[in-house]
Structure formats: C-alpha cells, structure tokens
C-alpha cells in the first residue's frame, strides 16, 4: 500500500483556507449580480489556477516530507500550516469553477480541468474562520499518533514496523492476540475524538462545494456519478466474491487444524490476528500454515534468497529499479538515492508506512520506507517504484493532469510489476538457481501463495471506504463507529477481533489510511486492474505458458506501450487510458478469475464437506 505524492495529490489530501480578507473584499456586493462568464474568462481562470498550484504545491510537499521523516511538534505544525496554505487555492478554485462549469463552448481541456478542480479534493474544510487550519492540524496530529504508535509483545513496547513484521512470523495465538489488541488500543482509540471532529468539518466543506457529504465527493472523482461508481464497485465485488469465499473456507479449515477449536472454530468467521497481518488484509505470511503437502513446498522463500545473496535494503531497491530499466524506462535520478528514506532512522520518529513521492513534479522522485530484507518488502519496493515511474511519465502534463487516470491506476502499475516476480524473473536477476524453479506440479502452491495476498485483500480493499461513506453520510454515528467497523469486517471479510472491544475502541483508526485520510477504494480497483494490465502485458510479450508464470521482464515493447498509457496522466477519462494498454474500456474482475482458475477448481475439491461462509 502507499500514499503516492504529487503536487495535485498533496493539494487534494489536505485542508483549505477561506478566501483571504483582500480577496473577500474584492468580491462583488450581494446586490450587484456578477456578469455572465465568458469562455475566455474560463480559460484565463484555469490557466491562473494551474500556475498557482504549481507555485505553492511544492512547499506543501516539502513540509509533509520533512514531517513524515522527522516527527516533532514543530514539523507537525509546519506541515499543518503549509497544508492549509497549499490547498486554500484548490478549494477556492473548486468553488469558483462552478461558475464556469456549465458554460457552453468550453474546450475539452478547460471543461475537464474545471471538473477536476471540483472532484480532486479529498479533505475539504468550510469557509468559516480557522476551520481550514483546524482540519490540517487534526490530520497532522492523527498521523503523528499513528507514526509514533506502539504495541506490546510479551509486555514490551514494539514499534509499528516491527510489530507488523512480528505479526507475520509469530504463531503463538496468545502473543498474536496481545499484539493485535495493544496496537488497536494504543493507536486507534486515542485519535477518535479528532476523527469525529474532522468528519464534521470535512462534511461542512463538502457541502459548501455542492456535495451531499465527503463520501459523495470522493465517489465523484471517477469520470462518473457517485451512484454509478458505487454500483460499479458492487458489480466488481460480485464477480470476485465466490473466489474469496472459497479461499476463506480453506484458510479457516487449515487454521482450525493448526490451532484447534478453542482458538479457531471450524465454522463462522476467522480470528483476525491469526492470518499473519495486523489488519487481516493480506494472508500470505501464513502460507506455511495452509500450504498443501507436496505442491505447497515451492523450494524457495524470497526473503531467504535475498539474505543468502547478501541483499541489503538499498540493493533491494536497485533490483526494483532494474525491473523498470529492463522495460526501457530511464534510471532513477541520483537525487532519488540521496534523498529517499529507504531504512528506518535510528534517531527519530518517522511514518514507516511505505509511500512514493515526487516533490517537484519533475524529477525529485523519492520513496519513504522502513525496509526490511524480506519478501514482503521486495514486493513493496516494486509497487512503490511503480508510483515513481508513473509520476515521471506524466510530468510534462499540466498541473491538473499530474495524476493517474484514476487512483486505482496509480496503485495498479507497481502491483502489475510485482505480479511478474515469478520464479523465472528471480532466475533472470540471479536470485534463484534454475534448478530450484518449481516444477509444474507446484502450480497450485504458486497460485495459492499469490491468492493469500491478492484475493484475500479484496473485501478489505472495499470495506474501508464503505465504512467511511456511512460515517460521512451520518448513517453511522460516532458512538457506533467501532460497532459498525466490526460488523462490516465480519460481513465482507468474515473476520472478527481476537477479543472484546470496548465502547471507546476505534479500531479503524489503527489502519494508516484512516488517520491519514487516504481514500481506499483505489486499492480494491488496483487489485483488479493489475490483473488486466498483467494479462495484457503477457499477451504483448507473446507469453504462451500458464499466466501465473509469466514474466515480461526485459520486454521493451511492453514498456513502450505502458509508457504511452502512463504519460497520459489524468488528461483523459480512465476508460481511454485502460483501452490504450489493454484494448478494453471496462474494469473487470475476469482477468483475475482467469489467473486463479486452476486454484478455484482445486479449492472447491478441498473444501467439499466444509460448512463454508460465516
């Protein structure tokens, strides 16, 4: 997961200031109706707004970078102040854009940019004095609580990156329960009051912009109506849910066999702390628990290979860069290596959640990670670099087009590359000996290992925003935040907490993207788009074997066609970008289902007689 950062993304993710007193004084009196706008005025308005975005956005990105890589009260104040100033222009422009939006005769670009001004805002604030500063302060403070968060293991404090790693390797159910409960109690609960206030202010800001609430604003940013987008996500989930249900049934059976009825019941939901991830969003870390005998022994572990070959975090990032270079993309700039945070500093608090940045919207590309030498972070590196190469590909677009075709595209690019981390790719880069490549009888094992991350994630990718949409709409009140969160996780994921949750709990706040206010449906979309992109890339590369073994590493024709899509940025509606690379204008789960078809058949056979569902 990542929070990709560009000028527009920074502006979209923070709060805004009201019009300055000077600007307010310049506004016409209520008794003097404004003259009808003209096309020329609309063009000039857009041009000036974009110039202003380019001028102030970099300062906001720089302040946020300093804060996230050096958390102190001072840097928190600086990022809140810069965030409010940076995005004042965005909300003022969004409000003003409504005056021109319905004007006949607008050029394509002016009309699209006016629309983007109104929909690209993630966290608006009302125009009342001090509201924007308050929203920015709330967001910075919540991120600070998260970044400094600690859980406990055997009674001793453990930081965020370490507890996440421990959840993946520990098989003691009591210690897993301790880590899960302590993290959610220590990180989630303390931010609830700030989150409630942030929702109030953001909703007021969204209404000022003409939206029912902040959730409706978020759903408007996909080249379709909020209602149509919600319906699209329903359709996509319905396509892939049967495969998730099969995987859940099989995983629960294996967990029951390992831990017994007292820890994991044979029927019903799965205990959230048993699947190898703090948020139960990806289950690949417990592959050793579920791996089928014979077929499940793949003969290698990527983390072990990295350590055996002497990889350190920088060498891992160099390997990720090598994948993109093999497709014909230019090397990362020297400043990337000078300015990125690749490992966790020993002398200060930082936000360890992985993210990719372009601070000047030109070539100041960076990643921020607390990298560990393991397979998970090797995949994450390929993912984060996908953001960086996307950012650089569209850096010649105008400011309002400096973004992905939609936010799911931005997440999917690096994931597409990560799907190509196949045994063949590991051989090509010298990590795996060809004699160690799993034979065809291991295909189910390879597919199951992928599904434990890719398929297991799908309902989690959907439910976070489903929960937030209800919070923003008022359907879920603050007193019921945690009750609704727990119920939604059970409904979508079939997951339950490992212990009782009190009335003051705020478990959603223990997931980075909630305090950071990063919309999450993008990750659900990305899980489907990446298989569409991957399937198209393999077809372009002329791959004829099983899809899950395809690697297009080294294929410059694929890189050239992908670069053409990436360079479009947000200048065209996302169906056009999708068509440019895949030939289809429709987001679909069908490519994912084709990829996992052999596994689906195998899971059905292995879960006969089980009471599936929860």
Keywords:
single chain, 614 residues, mainly alpha, Neurolysin, domain 3, 3 domains, two-stranded parallel sheet, 26 helices, disordered N terminus, peptidyl-dipeptidase activity, signal, Peptidase_M2
**Low-pLDDT residue intervals, each spanning 5 or more residues:** 1-30
The main sheet comes to: 2 strands, antiparallel
Put simply, the count of helices is 26
Distance between the termini: 27 Å
**SS strand fraction:** under 5%
Mean pLDDT: 91
Q: What number of domains?
A: 3
Number of strands: 6
Structural class by secondary-structure content? mainly alpha
Strand order of the largest sheet: 1-2
Helix share, percent: 55-70%
Principal-axis shape equals: globular
Radius of gyration: 24 Å
What does this structure look like?
Disulfide bonds join 352-370, 538-550. Keywords: Disulfide bond, Glycoprotein, Metal-binding, Signal, Zinc. There is one protein chain. With 614 residues, the chain is mainly alpha-helical. The protein folds into 3 domains: 39-121; 133-298 and 446-518, no CATH class; 302-437 and 522-607, Neurolysin, domain 3. It contains 26 helices and 6 strands. α16 packs across α17 (407-419). The longest helix has 34 residues, at 226-259. The two termini are 27 Å apart. Mean pLDDT is 91; it is low at 1-30.
Blueprint (SSEs and pairs):
Layout: H1 7-12, H2 21-26, H3 39-69, H4 73-101, H5 108-119, H6 131-147, E1 150-153, E2 156-159, H7 160-169, H8 173-188, H9 192-208, H10 214-219, H11 226-259, E3 270-271, H12 287-290, H13 302-308, H14 313-326, H15 334-339, E4 355-358, E5 365-368, H16 375-393, H17 407-419, H18 423-428, H19 443-454, H20 458-473, H21 481-493, E6 495-496, H22 521-540, H23 556-566, H24 574-582, H25 590-595, H26 597-606
Parallel strand pairs: 3-6
Antiparallel strand pairs: 1-2, 4-5
Binding site for chloride: 222, 522
Organism: Novosphingobium aerophilum
Protein name: M2 family metallopeptidase
């Amino acid at each position: 997961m990542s929070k990709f950062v560009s000028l527009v993304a920074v502006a979209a993710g923070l709060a805004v200031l009201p019009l300055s007193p000077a600007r307010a004084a310049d506004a016409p009196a209520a008794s003097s109706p404004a003259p009808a706008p003209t096309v020329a005025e609309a063009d000039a308005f857009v041009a000036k707004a974009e110039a202003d975005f380019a001028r102030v956005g970099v300062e906001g990105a720089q302040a946020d970078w300093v804060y996230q890589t050096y958390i102190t009260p001072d840097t928190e104040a600086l990022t809140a102040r810069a965030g409010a100033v940076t995005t004042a222009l965005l909300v003022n422009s969004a409000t003003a854009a409504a005056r021109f939006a319905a004007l006949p005769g607008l050029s394509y670009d002016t009309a699209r940019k006016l629309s983007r001004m109104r929909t690209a805002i993630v966290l608006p604030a009302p125009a009342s004095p001090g509201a924007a500063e308050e929203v920015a302060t709330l967001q910075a403070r919540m991120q600070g609580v998260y970044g400094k968060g600690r859980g406990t293991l055997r009674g001793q404090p453990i930081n965020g990156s370490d507890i996440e790693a421990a959840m993946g390797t520990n098989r003691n159910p009591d210690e897993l329960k301790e880590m899960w409960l302590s993290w959610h109690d220590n990180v989630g609960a303390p931010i609830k009051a700030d989150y409630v206030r942030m929702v109030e202010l953001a909703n007021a800001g969204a209404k000022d912009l003409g939206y029912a609430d902040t959730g409706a604003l978020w759903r408007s940013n996909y080249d379709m109506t909020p209602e149509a987008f919600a319906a699209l996500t329903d359709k996509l989930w319905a396509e892939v849910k049967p495969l998730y249900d099969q995987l859940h049934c099989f995983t629960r059976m294996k967990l029951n066999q390992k831990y017994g009825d007292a820890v994991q019941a044979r029927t019903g939901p799965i205990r959230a702390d048993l699947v190898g991830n703090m948020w139960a969003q990806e289950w690949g870390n417990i592959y050793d628990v579920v791996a089928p005998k014979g077929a499940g022994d793949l003969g290698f572990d990527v983390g072990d290979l990295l350590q055996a070959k002497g990889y350190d975090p920088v060498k891992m990032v160099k390997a990720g860069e090598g994948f993109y270079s093999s497709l014909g993309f230019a090397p990362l700039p020297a400043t990337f290596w000078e300015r990125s945070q690749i490992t966790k500093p020993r002398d200060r608090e930082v936000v360890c959640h992985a993210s990719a940045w372009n601070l000047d919207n030109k070539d100041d590309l960076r990643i921020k990670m607390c990298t560990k030498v393991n397979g998970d972070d090797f995949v994450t590196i390929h993912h984060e670099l996908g953001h960086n190469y996307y950012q650089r590909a569209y850096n010649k677009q105008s400011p309002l087009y400096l973004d992905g075709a939609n936010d799911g595209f931005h997440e999917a690019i690096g994931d597409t590359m990560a799907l190509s981390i196949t045994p063949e790719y590991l051989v090509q880069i010298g990590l795996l000996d060809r004699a160690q490549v799993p034979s065809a009888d291991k295909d189910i094992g390879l597919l199951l290992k992928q599904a434990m991350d890719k398929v297991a994630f799908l309902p989690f990718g959907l439910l976070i925003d489903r929960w937030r949409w209800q919070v923003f709409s008022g359907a879920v009140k603050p007193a019921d935040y945690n009750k609704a969160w727990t119920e939604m996780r059970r409904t979508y994921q079939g997951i339950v907490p490992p212990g009782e949750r009190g009335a003051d709990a705020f478990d959603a706040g223990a997931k980075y993207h909630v305090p950071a206010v990063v919309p999450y449906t993008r990750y659900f979309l990305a899980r489907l788009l990446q298989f569409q992109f991957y399937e198209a890339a393999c077809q372009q590369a002329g791959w004829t074997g099983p899809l899950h073994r395809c690697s297009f590493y080294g294929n410059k024709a694929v890189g050239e066609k992908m670069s053409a899509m990436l360079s479009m940025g947000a200048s065209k509606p996302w169906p056009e970008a999708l068509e440019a690379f895949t030939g289809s204008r429709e987001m679909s789960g069908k490519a994912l289902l084709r990829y996992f078809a052999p596994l689906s058949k195998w899971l059905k056979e292995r879960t006969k007689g089980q009471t599936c569902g929860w």
